Amino acid sequence: MTAALTGAGSAACSATGSSSNHRATGGDAVGRELTRTEKAAIRRLVSKWCANYDRDCGCLPLDCECYMFGKCWTGAYCRYFREAVLPLDPALEAALLTEGPRPDFKACPVCGRAVAPDGRQTYCSAACAKAAHRRQQREYMRKKRG
């Protein structure tokens, strides 16, 4: 019943996206160890957004503990996590799915979220840019008044 709802087959490889062709599953050619913040972000995403995860049962298609909670290296990810959950955090997606060394993300000065190193972009969103501009204007006017 659960496999029919999630679209996963009965075999473990269909749920995790594992196959003999490692490159086809979205894995890196040479894996690297995940950082503590990446592991925490994966756990947070799975527990909040993964439709296949249940706090009591774990991974519903596999009927065991979630594979992504014990993940220590980049490489083959759960197919559902990679296609549906990981895009919810673009900075983590870029860090996990790009080959080579991890790109250096800057922290947003307003909220602290990661900002991709795209030229002059300083803030993660227009809302953060607006909040920073308001703060700068307040400081400017306070200094100008006296």
Largest sheet: 2 strands, antiparallel
Radius of gyration: 20 Å
Largest sheet strand order: 1-2
Q: What separation lies between the terminal Cα atoms?
A: 70 Å
Number of helices: 6
**What spatial form do the alpha-carbon principal axes imply?**
elongated
Q: Can you give the helix content as a percent range?
A: 40-55%
Q: Find the count of extended strands (DSSP E, 2+ residues).
A: 4
Q: Which stretches are poorly predicted, pLDDT < 50 over at least 5 residues?
A: 1-29
Please identify the structural class as seen in this structure: mainly alpha
Describe this entry's structure for a reader.
It is a single chain. By secondary structure, this protein is mainly alpha-helical. Helix content is 40%, strand content 5%. It contains six helices and four strands. It has helices spanning 2-6, 12-16, 36-49, 79-85, 90-97, 126-145, and strands spanning 53-54, 58-59, 106-107, 114-115. The protein has a two-stranded antiparallel sheet. Strands 3-4 form a two-stranded antiparallel ribbon. Strand 3 (106-107) and strand 4 form a beta hairpin. The protein is elongated and about 65 Å long. The model is unreliable at 1-29 (pLDDT under 50).
